[in-house]
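We emphasize that the prediction below concerns an isolated chain of 380 residues; any contacts that depend on oligomerization or on bound cofactors are therefore not represented. The input was used exactly as deposited, without trimming of termini.
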Amino acid sequence: MVVEADGGSRGNPGPAGYGAVVLDATGRQVLAEVYDGLGTTTNNVAEYRGLIAGLAAARELGATEVEARLDSKLVVEQMSGRWKVKHPALQELVDEARDLVRHFDAVTFGWIPRADNARADALANRAMDGGSSPTPEPSAGPEPKPGSATESSEIGATDSSAVAAAWTGQVGTPVRMILLRHGQTELSVERRYSGHGDPELTGVGQEQAAAAARALAARLAKEGVAPAAVLSSPLRRARQTAAAVAEATGADLLVRDALIETDFGGWEGLSFAEARERDPELHGRWLGSADVEPPGGESFRSVGERIEAERRRIVEDFPGSTVIVVSHVTPIKMLIRDALGAGDEVLFRMHLDLACTSVADFYPDGGASVRLVNDTSYLD
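Result of the prediction step, given as a token string:
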């Protein structure tokens, strides 16, 4: 049999629910649907509850082999044994799911895009709206013919009343990106351009990274959120900061090359005054236009295109999850700018301190919202 499962939380944590559909081996005939609310909890907890409910329903229907399909990469990777389960809030749910797995001859886990998980997603949203199915209910009647109205309503379409919509109009469960700038380096102490150069953190920078890591771990633990991953720029100052966060939160650290800082070319290592003295006309134009490149370097326009593509990949790779992105001034500004729907001018007016935290939500329908900018309260 095939199990499609999903879960969601409006607010993460917030009102949550799960949904699961059991289908025959062809993946076309619906054999059972289960869904229920969970009160206030997180996306990850709801995703696991959906899987557990789906496996239990398949067992009651006599399944011996199950193909589980989910749009949560975290659940798929952890249940497949490729990712470690480090967050205590999820360990009991993982154990419960694995106990169910032992009752089958074989269970496989596969990730599917959210669009292909519409049946379970609709049930999860129905549960968040207050609905529930006390017991698995076998579907009545013969398998619908391809193209019939019944097939469309059960397989292809989603009841609009069951779709979660934020008060600002965004639809679906967002990817929450916690954006963390790296800690202090020698170049930042001297206020010099630091792009693709690779200085390490100073002692102060290491302390800043540790403080940010402790604060993030405490905040996420209080909210019952297990981050899906810590995503880091490849540069050493970011990786050192990200390593502290990964250790504190128990999340895996993944290096993403596209999160690298702007290439400042010939201005690398120069102070603001030195760059202006060296290239006065070019430097002046660069300060007012995202299309101007430093000598041999990269324009903000190019950085923006790189970061936009990476943002889309993150949303696709970690649907409905919380990820911690450790990067640099320009990439973080780009993500905030995109979330605000603002123009290039904001890049020249926004200030981000070392080791500061910002938070933005990116929704699967393309919407976004900014929740926090430049928090350094944990450094006081």
